[in-house]
Amino acid sequence: xxxGINPEINELLAMRYCAAELQLFxxxxxxxxxxxxxxxxxxxxxxxxxxxxxxxxxxxxxxxHWPLTARSGxxxxxxYHEERERSVYLLIDQxxxxxxxxxxxxxxxxxxxxxxxxxWAALTQHxxxxxxxxxxxxxxYIKPRRSRQSLLDVFNLLTYxxxxxxxxxxxxxxxxxxxxxxSGSTVIVLSDFCNxxxxxxxxxxxxxxKCELINLLVYDPLEANLPDRGIFSFTDNGSxxxxxxxxxxxxxxxAKPFAKRVDHLRNLSRQNRMQFxxxxxxxxxxxxxxxxxxxxxx
Length: 298
Known about the structure:
By secondary structure, the protein is of the alpha/beta class. It is built from nine helices and ten strands. Helix content is about 35%, strand content about 25%.
């Protein structure tokens, strides 16, 4: 039985039904060079009505507000916010530390499922979707497009990794995305953040300064706490063996590294206006996302 060990394309495709009710990407004033449904600060002819003002030389006469002009005896014109499209970048960690779980599926598989939910939700709300799939050996980039094909390209990378790729790792992937993004984009990092270096943190800060950043920490329940009872054995491909008992002192010492990692990332996110969430491998992913990322774009 291999289900839950590797991402499966059919499962990622089926996530579109779960994503139908997720309102994760609220329309907001963003800056981009591509027309779409999100309003930007740029003004021009579009679908998002802003205000009425006195006619000025050079205004498009097709935008004259004729009823108000007739009532007031002065010429008024309608002003619109030019509509723009948000680019959503998914950074999906498939490193060795992500290939672990005791509940439901590997963290790497859960990250892929979350990416599928977010990707389908973004496309449903007319966003451009793309991003980076990476591990410690390499990374592959899909340019965001408002197209199912771009999301399918991400799925293909998750299920059939390529051999000829750019430099991998969290820090390198963040550095690469920093060079790609425009102001107003959304970057979502799906990782256990086990390899969060000071260099990676700096790139997170720079990305958050430029656009919206959401850190989603994926973890297995056993990483956070030992079960209530028992003696637990851990092996490393059979070459080493570790047994841990369930004494209170042992459980507290065991839980500290994970709690420290979570607190550090939470504080980093709070101090730099990033959003932060944790998702366990046995969580109801759609429900947690709906509750936790519904402020995206605000």
